[in-house]
Structures are given as C-alpha cells and as structure tokens.
Amino acid sequence: MTLRHFAGHRLVAQGLGERLFRRPGLREECAALEKEAMKELLLPGFDELVLGYRDRLHLMDEARHDAITPGGNGVFRRTALRPAGVPRLPPAARGGMRPMDRPSYGYSAADAPPPQGPVGGGPQEQPVCPRHPDRVSYVRCKRCDRPACPDCQRPTDVGVLCVDCERELARAQASTRPRTAMGGRMRSGAPVVTYTLIALCVLAYLGQMVAPQIVEQLGIFAPFRALAMPWTFLTAGFLHGGIMHLALNMYALWAMGQFLERSLGPARFAAIYFVSMLGGHTAVYVLADPMGYSWLTGTVGASGGVFGLFAAAFIVNRRMGGQVAQIGVLIALNLVITFTVPNISWQGHLGGLLLGAALTAGMYALRPKAVAGQDRQALARRSAITHGALVVAAVVLCAVLVAVKTMLLPGL
Predict the structure, then answer these.
(1) Between these two residues, 140 and 6, which has the higher pLDDT value?
(2) Environment class of residue 161 by beta-carbon count within 10 Å: exposed (0-12), middle (13-18) or buried (19+)?
(3) Domain ranges of the chain
(4) Taking all residues of the chain, what is their mean pLDDT, rounded to a whole number?
(5) What pTM does this model have?
(6) How far is the C-alpha of 308 from the C-alpha of 253, rounded, in Å?
(7) pLDDT exceeds cutoff 80 at 404
(8) Above 80 in pLDDT, residue 108?
(9) Residues ≥6 apart with Cβ < 8 Å to 186
(10) For 321, left (φ over 0), alpha (ψ -120 to 50), or beta?
(11) For labelling alongside 370, which of 37, 198, 240, 274 has CA 20 to 30 A away?
(12) What's the CATH number of domain 192-407, 3.20.20.100, 1.10.287.70, 3.30.950.10, 1.20.1540.10?
C-alpha cells in the first residue's frame, strides 16, 4: 500500500472515532501499514520525520524499518535503534539537541560579528564622505561600499553609486561601445545629418522663390567673384536651378546618406559631404577660362557633394565586402549625363567625385588598426584625430589650388 492509500485509510479510521482503535489488532494493522509506507521515506540519521519530504529521503534498511512506531500528527519515531539495555542520553549529554532539532543551513543574528569600534572602547566614529570629510553620510556606494554625501551620490537602477564608480563604469562602457568601420560611434536612430542637409536645401529653394535676387546674389558661386565672396564655395551647394534639379539631388542625398551616415558616423559623413562640395567648386574655379564665358557663369546645386557621396559609397562597399556593381553603374550613368547634357557643370561633378573618393580612401588607409586587448576608446580618439587631420589637409589642398590659379591669372 502506498502512502496515499495509507493516508486515506488513516483518515477513515480517525473519522470513525476512538471506538475503532479499541478493536483487537487494529492498532497493529495500522502500525504495519505505516512501516510499509515509511520504507521509502525515512532518511537515516534523523530521530523524527514529518510526512511531506518524500522526494528527499532514501530507502532504509530492515533494522531501521523494524524500529518504526507510529506517532501523532503524521510524525514517526525510531525507538529500537539503540541496543537493549542502553538508556537514552539526556539532552545535556547530547549537546543540548532535542529529537525535533534540525540542522540550520542559514545564518542567524547570533552569527553576526560584533561591531568594530575604535581602539580603547571610545565612541564609534561616524562615516564621512571621502570627497567631503566634513559631511556625515550613512549612504554607501553599492560598488565600493564607501560613504557618499548627497552631492556625490549617483542614483542607478541597482542602487546608489559614488562619483568615482560612476565615472569608472562610464569609461568601461565607452570602451566596449560598438564602433563603425571608421572608429566612430555606432548610431541606430534616424540619419539626422542627412535630414538636416535636405531641410536646408529645401529652405534655401523656398528663399529663392520668395526673394530670388537677394538669395541668388549672395549665394551663387561664380569664379570672377569667388575671392571676394569665399562663402559661396559652400552656400552655392544649397541652391538649385529648379524643382527637378532639387528633387533629383535630394533623392540621391537621401539614398546615399542613410547608408553612409550609419556606416561612417555623422561627423565623418558630414565632413566628406562638405569637402566634396568644396572640391567641386574649387574645380570649377581652377578649370574655368578667365578669358571665356565660364569665368562669368554662376554655379548652383548639391551635385558636387552628392558625387562625393557616390564615391564614398563605392569605397565603403568595397572595403566591407558588399556589392559595388550597382553603385558603379550609377556613377557611370551620372558621368555620361554630365558630359552629354548641356548646361551641367562637369567640373563640379568631377571635382566632388575625385576629392570625395580621395578623402574616403585616406580615412580607411590611415585608420588605426585594432589589436586584441587595446583600449578601444583611446583607439577611437586616435582615429578621430587622424581623420580630422585628413579633412584639414583636403581643405588646405583646395585653398592651395585656388591660390595657384589666382596667381596664374592674366594681369596679376
């Protein structure tokens, strides 16, 4: 009979009252059933056992099985484990342990060490903030366990940290932050720089529609007045000659910008775009004939920057092992249109394409190589300094070309 059957039998017997236990042989029958049920329940080494720990107990041998006698409330005692004639030791002789005592696997208040006070039995010192010794604080940092005053506490999800631990954790997280192929921070949100450039171009076109004379006279790039209005090397990239011109350039900027801004990082993407725009207008100035009509012709459009992004996308895909056939076909088609359709500044397109490609290739070639165990944050700083120097070198190159062209002008 299993324990479940035995428990049901015992409940029935108790429900009938004490009258049934007076029947001859009933108590012995119950004792035999209890012994059978306890055959799989008693753990050797315990004096008493409460029903319910069945899954933690082991099978007992015959000697222990024969020593079982029923007790009250589902508790069983072993009464014949001692040899005959050997009295049971009193609790004092057994170390104060009673039959129902159980071993404790936790800690109690008595296990706590006594408080450590200053030597000599004087009053205990109050905890003070290490940064502000004149301030008493009972709030401790969860990381270093040092006291922290309210000015030095930094609340976090896991508790209060001190200023030093918060800075150390910030540096550790920065060193393990994902980086782009150029060493910039990985961004997962919207391409903010791309959307900003598109918005500026749209606003500039609205300005052309509202006040065309003012906007165009102040923003259009023309070689004959480039030295007198040097800002037009960049402002002309936000002006356009019509709605179709604006729409095509903005679509190309949106398509290239979403990919490149996430691959290179916002700062490097913006640097390549503006340097390409500057390179396009520099090429227009350098290749213009001072004695011809091109010297007096104005140039507008973001095509120089867009062509630079085309070249950057080609190099990035090439370096990352991506497909370059599509972007190569796109560049080829735009070059064909540039040299076959009239009234298109091929000098600006070609200058932006070449300088954008050179700057992107230089960033890849001169980026610091990562080594296992090296501080990635320090590596990112070195990469930023190197790429910043490349951008400055590209701007200086454009300035030198403009200066050389100016010195070669007739009559100077």
Answers:
(1) 140
(2) buried
(3) 3-78, 128-176, 192-407
(4) 77
(5) 0.61
(6) 10
(7) yes
(8) no
(9) 177, 178, 179, 180, 262
(10) left
(11) 274
(12) 1.20.1540.10
